[in-house]
Amino acid sequence: MLIIPVKEGENIERALKKYKKKFDKTKVMLELRSRKEFTKPSVIYRQAIIKATYKAKMQSQQD
Asked: Helices in the chain by DSSP H: which ranges?
């Protein structure tokens, strides 16, 4: 549960902004989306390798 302390006379917009930022930092939505459907460990491993090769390729192009 997220607790956002709101000071006396503080704008509600600012409190909502703090709440949204704190909520994003907890990564709740990412976990919910990942739990929505099962992905095999081999697929996750393959995606990680593809991502790493892409990053290495981009890094070598910048140099």
From this structure: 12-26, 28-36, 41-62
